[in-house]
Design brief:
Length: 371
């Protein structure tokens, strides 16, 4: 297994520097081999390649951990039911992927790499199809928007209710959302911002600083009464109820969503674990959920919240990037750590925790982008 993982990572290093070329070639080859598959994808393919490559990178980095590898791919297979992918589709995608890898890698590609990817893709698709076959839930849920509240020009908090079938998920997980009225066949992942409840209501925090399609629609165009589609939950940033370690949560911007869900779950059973939440943004106006967190602090003595701003000198709280603030308060070596935010924020925080010698197995994280 170690040699197998090495071959995958070595060969991936040959192509990851030009991901756009890789994804463009993959989709061109795929649609040439199977034109009917084109209708499964959005009209505008911008961003689609990023999601493909993100899935590949995640799989590569978990291949050395059989349990995580299996769990991730089974969840990915359940999620892909929303695309109505068939066994033949997987076969065709495998041919297109290998062709794209060979072409993008050029002279650096060899037979060992080729066989490693054949074996990896076979293992990946076997687990994905097993996950899809074992799932008794619908491919996706229809959900009605109940409330929609704006926080400034680019952030919104909305609640939705899944219709017909309950949507089973765990606090800290994320789901894919489609806005069929505005953007059919375009899906984007969002963490659920509340713990599961009997009313089957889900809360989402969405930010669209740029021209993100789905995020832009959810912030600016969606209204109460609109219908969304929500796919199967994924993600492993969940609580270990058997752990007795105290908890550190680090959130940047709308990365607060899964942290808020984790805290809500903890309010239902926690009595012995101290929970420290660090919540950062550039400016205080971006700390849109701080008042709600402070209400929880007043109700639960085991909870503390430390807000921080990196670009507001007069802010009445901590100053600096949230990763730097967290480092000032350590050590965190005996904590279960959860990190959620932008890719840059997550990387910086993971480096800070590594410098604090937090064991990697005690750290879980999710990153947020804009699509």
């Amino acid at each position: 297994m170690e040699n197998f993982a090495r071959l995958l990572k070595e060969s991936w290093a040959l192509v990851e520097g030009d991901r756009k070329r890789l994804s463009d070639y993959f989709y061109a080859r795929l649609f040439l081999l199977a034109p009917d598959l084109r209708k499964l994808f959005p009209v505008q393919m911008a961003g689609q390649g990023d999601r493909l490559l993100e899935a590949i990178v995640t799989a590569i980095h978990t291949v050395g951990d059989p349990e995580s590898f299996d769990e991730y791919l089974r969840a990915l297979g359940r999620d892909h039911r929303k695309y109505h992918v068939t066994a033949d589709s997987y076969t065709t995608m495998g041919i297109a992927l290998l062709d794209a890898l060979r072409t993008s890698a050029g002279d650096g590609w060899n037979l060992e790499y080729d066989q490693a990817w054949r074996d990896a893709y076979a293992a990946m698709t076997e687990k994905m199809q097993a996950g899809a076959s074992a799932d008794t839930n619908p491919p996706y849920w229809h959900a009605e928007v109940l409330t929609h509240e704006r926080y400034g020009p680019d952030t919104a908090v909305l609640t939705v209710r899944a219709l017909q079938h309950p949507l089973p998920y765990r606090a800290g997980q994320y789901v894919s959302i489609e806005v069929p009225r505005h953007l059919p066949r375009v899906w984007r992942t969002y963490s659920v911002a509340n713990a599961p409840n009997a009313d089957n209501v889900l809360e989402f925090h969405v930010r669209t600083p740029g021209a993100g399609w789905v995020s832009g629609a959810l912030v600016r165009r969606v209204r109460p009464g609109d219908l969304l589609r929500i796919a199967a939950p994924m993600g492993a940033m969940t609580l270990d109820r058997s752990s007795e370690r105290d908890i550190l949560c680090v959130a940047g911007g709308v990365g607060l969503a899964p942290v808020k869900a984790l805290v809500e779950e903890l309010t239902t059973y926690n009595r012995t674990r101290w929970v420290h939440v660090f919540y950062g943004a550039r400016r205080s106006a971006d700390l849109y959920a701080l008042a709600g967190l402070q209400e929880l602090v007043a109700a639960y003595p085991w909870l503390s919240v430390t807000p921080a701003c990196s670009e507001e000198p007069g802010f009445d709280g901590e100053h600096g990037d949230i990763s730097e603030v967290v480092s000032r308060y350590g050590p965190w070596t005996s904590h279960d750590c959860f990190v959620s935010g932008s890719a840059a924020m997550v990387r910086a925080t993971l480096r800070a925790l590594a410098a604090d010698q937090v064991p990697p197995q005690h750290v879980r994280y999710d990153t947020f982008g804009d699509v």
